[in-house]
Amino acid sequence: MTLSSAERPKYEREVDVDSVFLVEEDLNDGTPKSKYIEIPPGSRSRSSNNVTFSSSATSNAGTSSILESFTPKDIEELAQLLKPAIIGHTDTDADDDDHDEMEFDFDLKPAAQKEEAALMSSMYMSKRDIETFFNEKEKEEIEWHNPYGESTYSLFYLCPVNSFAFWYAAFVYFLQITTILLTMIDVIDWDGTTGLNLPPMVDVSVTIAQGVALFQAVAFQSDLIGAVSKFKEGFHHEVLKEHPGATYATWFLSCTAELFAGSLLLVTIFVLIMQVDTVLDIMLNFAALEFMANIDDVAFSLAKTGFIGNRLQGAANNVATFRVRKRPASDQGFLQRSWKAGVFFLVLLILVAGWVTIVAFRTSGQYMCNTIIVNMGDEFVPSLGTFNGLYDLDSSAGSGLEWRAEYVERRSLEIDTPGRGIFGYCSDIKAWTFRVESRGSNEKGDPCDWIARSSETDAYDITEAVASPWFVRDDSFREVVLEPFSVFCFDCTKEDAEGSDDCGGKGTCSNAVCDCEDGWYGLRCEFVSPCPWITIDARTDKFASTRDWADNFQSIDLGNGALVEAHHRPVYIHEYSDGEYDVVMFTGGRWALTSSVFLPQAGRIPSNALTDSQDDVGNDIGNYFKHSFHGYKGFSTNFSVAFLSDFMEIGTDRDLSSPVGFAWYHAIAKERTTKNENQGIGNEISTEFLCRLCDESSNPCLYDGQCNAGECVCSLDSFGSLCEIPPVRNGHCDPFFNLPEFKMDGGDCCESSCASTSQYVCGAEEDGYVSTGYYYCEQPKNKWQSSLLNGAAGSFSGYSMDLSMGSIAVSEILQDRVRIYDKVGSSWVLRDTIIGDAGSRFGAGVLGLSSGPFNVVSNPSFKAPLTVAVQDAYRRLQIYKCNFEGCTRSQEFPLVFAFALSKDGTVLATSLLVAAGEAPNVIRVYEAQEGLFEFRADLNVTRNGSLADVSSLSLSGDGSTLAVQTQMKEFDTNLGFSVATNEYIVVMAWSRIVGSYNMETEIRFESQLNTLGYELSVALNQDGTVLAHGFPNCQGTQLHVHARNNDGNWIARAAPAMNTTGCIYNERPEKNNALSLSGDGITVAFRVGTKVRVLVWESKTESWDDVSDPFPSTHYPIALSSNGKELAIGAPEDGIGGVTAVYSLPGRKECPAGMSLLRLSLTLDRLPGDVVWNLVNNSTGEILFEQESYPQEYTFATILEETCVPADSCYVFTIYSNDNRGLLAPGQYAIFMDGVNVAQGTFSGLFGREEFGSCASCPEGTELFSMMMLTCGPMELVLLKVINQGESGIALHADSTLDGDYDGTVYETCNEHHMSVDCAAPFFSISYSGCLDTTECYGVQVKSQFKHTAYLELVLGKQRVNARPNAVCGGETFFVGQKDKCLQEDWLNRKLQMFAN
Questions:
Q1: Residue 1145's pLDDT is what?
Q2: Cβ atoms within 10 Å, residue 10
Q3: How far apart (Å, rounded) are the C-alpha atoms in residues 1364 and 1392?
Q4: What average pLDDT score do residues 1157-1174 get?
Q5: How far apart, in whole angstroms, are the C-alpha atoms of residue 917 and residue 902?
């Protein structure tokens, strides 16, 4: 029988043969033909012995086709060789009957493998027969199945352990388990009390949805169901025949891993379902977690489709085609057949039981917080803060599937109060609320009668209601936001467990409160033990009201480690002897200060007044605060406080265990209650507490103070319990506090802002006898500080004035007096008042002030000697001498038109009125001799043969140069005063030569006619090398400055630009002091109309720059200090009696780069004439300063010298005492380099020496040796010899070097120093310094053919030897060093003379 083309099937078979013979039928004659088809060996699968061969029968018009057919015999023979597995029959084109395909899949059994198969027969099989045959085979195939499915767990089972497929499955399993575990870790609250983080209550619909979702979770849990099925199927041993790697171990691993993953995922899904509180969230979470159950299936699908590689694809295909024979149903009992259903319902039952248990716990409130902690602000309702603290769950408030808890304030229940604070839920407004209800009432309080409420919410847990704002009512009954507001669950996670995590490992938690270990404190042991002793911070004010309050308070320790508390914070008291006490206590939200007088029961409950239920703490005050006190005044009729602190917010940095660090306010009544008025905060006060007991780690002493047994030992002059008060504004500059946070040491480091105190003098130390200056001043250099010297009413103060070295003289002409002020820091302190003749208008003329030839500063025993020259309206010039005791008049000069007084007080020049009505044209010069001015010369100024009128005079600071400003004028009868008849003004400078002045040069400048007859001004600097002159005029103010060069020629400097804007034309100056020049000549102050400008000469640009904006002025005199940093402007018409404004410029002398500021302070003793000193740059030999004695009036004076020096040089300061007595107290010296004290002290004996700067130090084993000898001459020969053992010697050179060969050569040296001592001839001094070995003994021998009084002093390290007067020149030897060594030898018949200090 021949098959038609429509019946031609397609065969796909897997065979283990290399070739197959097929039978063909020719379409033309129907003759069957055989065909042998080779199967290429390379087509075999690497993972099996099978190969696949496919052929298809197709029909196309005009072409031949191959007809494949098998006879029944062929099928039978194949059936013997192959195990058939019908894959199926497919019709690829239902409309094309000519193309019908059938697919067959044959797996060759290993036992029946043949090298080739030849199937040849002449019999043919019909299509029906074939279909019948395969239908029968399909029935047999049903008995074969794959019990493990297509998943990576099958790869675990079937693939060898060392195969790539096995480890791919392991990786997928690890990924799945990790994902599930991470999800579980996230959903479970590992620190919570339940661990499952379940909501305390949900809606009924959510509860039902949770139960339904559990059934779905079990039904769709493929891994769990699959694992159960595999365990039921068991292990098939015949699998090993085709899959040797499929051992019992891998089977068990596969089943167990799948069971574990499914169970773990089911638990995670259960927890998630139980955690959510909406139906939608249940479904979303369930759907979201399904992807974790399908991870293994997805991974297998990727492998099977070849995305992971060919090897893995082949392994996946083998797993997919894996078959085993089913176990006959007849061999299974009822339990075996029902096992999967039983497991399903068992798992479901377990989950339902868990669900029911959770629902039961919810309805009984098991998942609600037993204790919460509440923090409510009190801005609008002051009483709310008093109800902060712990609240406990009221178990009697209700139960059921949908109910909300109530929480009652624990403190209200602990004490006998008439009410209690409660949190509940008001269904009417759908909000959580707070209320205060009466205690013991038979009727339940209404939660809707609220004091505070949440936003609208359906939350069953009050802690969830804090995410949205809470509200209270203000005074206008408007609802306003309550801030702050917080609620936290405060349960113990482990009750009564030592070292509980709730207590930070520092205590045991019980009933939401920790019992802390020693040293710890707080509800959660979050604080170290609170400070037991607090005191008011001395930097702040004390508590001030109608009564005095205590400054110090202590906590009450009951002896057992417990403290008396109020609202879980310690109580601090200051107890008085009469039983009354001041108390600082916590009221729930704020600390409060009150007195026991204002507390109920006077703040005490004696033990005999306690009830049976109240335990005695052993302290009356403790009994009161434990059993009676509550911060809410509605519970008491006699309760008020005086002060309240800032609000304390729980859980923030303001949550503190004591009142230290809180700001304080006056307490005022704000909220009326049934019994009292609750108090809120009023005005803030400047009061703060600090802990009085110091601790190096937690409460250290401030500003480098040292803590010693709880008490601070302060340094840096700070003071207070914790050294908290910095020593600012005490008159002493401390660089440590010279910072903006301390307001630059309170201004102590700048002269313009420092104020002396009883402890310190500004700019000084050591009781005021060392002048430190103001090196650390950090104020802006161009910011002037002003001080006002106000005159007495009607005094017309400031009509004339003068400045000199920290002193100022100010006239008050209507009261005929001149006041003398000394500057101490930024203050001007009145020294004395000079009274003139009544009605003389004392001070109406020019005023002159001199502070002497030396740069001195005042100290407690000395005030700079001043010379004051005062002119009255009668043209009388009176001279006053002022010292430490006061001012006395010394001389008087009549008919003086103008005068000048040198700043050193040594020269006085006057222009005289020869006769009434005549112009002043005679200049008379005086020099100071023994305190009085002695006449030296009269001078005339001529111009074109005529005497010129003298308008003004000026002397240089040292009196060496005189400048005279003149003009030719005539009296104008129409105008009533003199006017200039020339267009020029002559200025003449003079130089003093031995008691007289000769004209040095003539300086002229052109100008317009001075038609108003303004008086002119002229000024010289300290050494007479700079001259300023000019006159004020609204028509064009003019200022000219000339400087004398090294050749003695006067060179004009560029004139500064003048601005007369605002100048009133008819303002005529009353005085000629319209300009003033600094000592160095680079700063000039000049009046321009109603303004005063201060200009500084810039040598680089050769121009004048304004120091600041112009100062307000009138047409009265001005004065500039010699250092250019103080400006005085008189305004006698201002105020009630006239004002003198003194402006001071802060800062210090600036040094160029590479230079340091050197400052020497030397305070003399009672014999200033015996002091001789010098300061030398030892690197260059330059003498920086030197002085030979001082006048007696400088007793105890503080001499000040300051200059810029190279920073890298070595400097030597040497000071001598002519009478060999040293420098006695209060005399001392101090040297500063850039503000740092590098040398300070005094000395005894002949001399003192200090070396500082970049000086070479002595080598190790040696020390500095110094020798000084003074003798009255004439000395013809001085022999010096320093001798050590062995008669070898060290010769001394005058240049302080050592002779290299040590041959004992004697050198002559006579270094002459002029010293003003009572000696017939000048002193001669011989000095030497060098490094000597300290282990040797040295002798010094001096010989002279003339014996005169002499002093010898030797210093080696700290050893000092002084020789007696008259004993030096006799040839005796004096020793220094190791004395014992010197005595061991016979030294040239010498006599030992050694005197140690």
A1: 82
A2: 19
A3: 12
A4: 93
A5: 29
Which residue(s) pair with 55 in the sheet? 11
1045 vs 916, higher pLDDT = 1045
So what's the pLDDT on residue 61?
A: 36
118-163 per-position pLDDT tens digit: 333 333 445 565 566 556 655 555 566 666 677 888 887 788 888 8
Residue 980: the pLDDT is 56
| Calpha distance 906→899 (Å, rounded) | 14
CA distance 814 to 836: 11
Question: Residue 385 corresponds to which amino acid?
Answer: G
List, edge to edge, every strand of the sheet that includes 922-929.
896-901, 907-912, 922-929, 932-940
Quote the CA–CA distance of 148 and 153 in Å, as a whole number: 8
What is the spatial distance between Cα 257 and Cα 177, in angstroms, rounded to a whole number? Answer: 9
Which of 382, 366, 157 minimizes the C-alpha distance to 253?
A: 157
Q: What residue type is 129 in one-letter code?
A: D
What pLDDT was estimated at residue 578?
82
Residue type, 287: A
CA angle 1261–1266–1272, rounded 5-degree value = 160
The rounded Cα 479 to chain-centroid distance in angstroms is: 41
Assigned token pair, 1395: 């005197």
Q: How many whole angstroms separate alpha carbon 624 and alpha carbon 614?
A: 11
Cα–Cα distances in angstroms (integers) from residue 1313 to residues 194, 1189, 1214, 1316, 1321, in the given order: 100, 12, 13, 10, 11
pTM greater than the 0.90 cutoff: no
Report CA dihedral (264, 265, 271, 275) to the nearest 10 degrees. 150
> 1063-1077, 1241-1255, 1303-1317: which has the minimum mean pLDDT?
1303-1317
pLDDT tens for 37-81 read 333 343 333 333 333 333 333 333 333 333 344 444 444 544 444
> What are 1291-1303's pLDDT values in tens digits?
333 333 333 222 2
Cα(1258)–Cα(1267) distance, integer angstroms = 16
Hey, how many other C-beta atoms are within 10 angstroms of the C-beta on 1051?
Answer: 10
CA–CA gap between residue 874 and residue 916 (Å, rounded): 12
CA separation for the pair 725, 539 (Å, rounded): 6
Query: Between residues 99 and 556, which one has the greater pLDDT?
Result: 556
d(CA 741, CA 552): 28
Strand order in the sheet with 1126-1131: 785-790, 1139-1144, 1126-1131, 1118-1120
Report how far residue 763's alpha carbon sits from residue 578's, in angstroms, rounded to the nearest whole number.
Answer: 51
d(CA 1212, CA 1175): 6
Are 725 and 543 in contact by the 8 Å Cβ rule? The answer is no
Closest CA to 1397 of 1367, 1356, 1368: 1356
- The DSSP 8-state label assigned to residue 630 in this structure reads -
Strand partners of residue 862? 859
Task: Give 688-700 pLDDT, tens digit per residue.
Answer: 999 999 988 889 9
SS (H, E, C) 294-318: CHHHHHHHHHHCCCCCHHHHHHHHH
Q: Helices 72-81 and 127-141 meet at what angle, rounded to 10?
A: 20
| Least confident stretch, 6-20, 312-326, 1010-1024 | 6-20
**90: Cβ contacts below 8 Å, ≥ 6 apart:** 101, 102, 103
- Amino acid (1-letter code) at residue 1106: D
Name residue 1230's beta-bridge partners.
Answer: 1161, 1240
Does pLDDT of 415 surpass 50? Answer: yes
Nearest-angstrom CA–CA distance, 254 and 1327: 107
What lies within 8 Å, CB to CB, of 924 at 6+ separation is 909, 910, 911, 912, 935, 937, 938, 939
Dihedral through CA 276, CA 279, CA 283, CA 286, nearest 10? 30
Percent of the chain with pLDDT strictly greater than 90? 24
Q: What is the pLDDT of residues 781-815, one digit of tens each?
A: 678 888 899 998 889 998 888 998 889 999 999 99
